[in-house]
Amino acid sequence: MSQADIDAISDEQLKALSKEEKKALKARKRALWEAANGDKLKEKKPKMTKAERRASQAAQRAAKGQTASGGKAEGKAGGDGATGTGAGDSKANTRAAAQPASGEAKASAHPGANPGGVDPGANPDAPAALPAFRAAALFSHLPQHASADAASAGLGVGGAQELHPVIMQLGLKYASGHITNPDARVMAMLQAFRALVEDYNPPTDQEMSRHLLKRLERAFGFLTSCRPHTPSMGNIMRSVKQVVAKLPDDADKTDAEKKAKVLDRIDDISSRLLLAAQQIARIGAKRISDGDVVLTFGYTYAVELLLREAASCSYRLVIVDARPLHEGRHLMKALNAACPNLSITFVCFTGLSYALGDVNKVVLGADALMSNGAAIGRAGTAAVATAARARHIPVILACETYKLCRRVQLDAIVSNELGDPLALLQVAGNGAGGNSGGLVMPGLNRYSTGDEGIWCAEVRGSGVDDVPGVDRLNPLFDLTPIQGISLVVTEAGFMPPTSAPVLLRERDTNEM
Asked: Taking the model in full, what pTM does it have?
């Protein structure tokens, strides 16, 4: 039976065929099609056993790893650090070429960005460029920690010649780790924006609002290239852009008056941030009574003020500290200087379970509060909150409303920031007989914000050799789920974490 005979069969004839006849007809049609299209048929793969499939998958993974490592090496050796040319065709090679591991590759790609080869942010106490490292595969999708030298930080965004010197200086401090605390980063960014607007000269051939908005966006992009911005920094940037975008509505005002309006808005935001922390301290201190044993971890400015405000009560404070930033040390010294009568117990993170034995309240800070009620904080915050919840200890989270974020986040893997991986290998030394080649104890660097200030860690290190073949992971933040938070205290009062979307809507309505 030919194909023409099969096509001539009517629907009534098909219905009259038996089941076996229909099956034979279908097989005949398949045979005719294969005979006509034999060159298009794919050769059937032989069926593999389970062990053979596992061996094949292992071989494919090994080949993929060799290709990726070879592409990275090629990108570092001969590729263009700025454009990623000459690094191969694979995605791994493209990423390796687009993100060079050292400042030398970027400097060679932009020879005119640093005339004379002078480091504009040179600091004799700052660490030298660290060797390349191998990142953990689980966090390979995140931006890897960049070199701390000024050249690699300063070349993150094109058009660096149009950046204000204060912006460039602040970006270098972000990249080198001289300003690490999120609260200090926000205040420093506002002060840098104020300096930019003060020295801004509007062009005669362009509208002031559009030109100034581009300058601010370029400055914020430069700071983000030096170090990824926090959600709170994004909120503050959005608030500054709103007032700049409304400048065309003031057509009857001069450029000087428009600049004064933007400066007043920046000053208003700065004062609101400090007042928010002070209000949180006054409200949150009411939850601490005589005889309480309070535990805290990490550092935020609001938590420091809260614990200082509650010092009028006779309570005992347990500070849990962890490497490599040692923020607990800064909090301990600040509270000891401001409240000498406060009883403080200092515990390393490894003694957390022991420290929780007598604790009846836990006070933690947050870098961001997501719309689903989860909180982003310094790495280790989630472990403290989980351990406290297991012992039925209430966890109070101090968080300003400007740290509320519209985003929903369920874990700290998809979105996070990676710190210096070599800081995990550095050992603190006393400089007088200990490990002198280790990490110098973090200094107390108070970023001035007027009469008050915000503590931030200053981490330095040198003389640490790289350990080949070891994956090093130093995530800076983690996510505390909503179940680990009992109460949130903001400048608007107390609220459960489930009310975060309500407060977020109210904040956006009032335009912070």
From this structure: 0.66
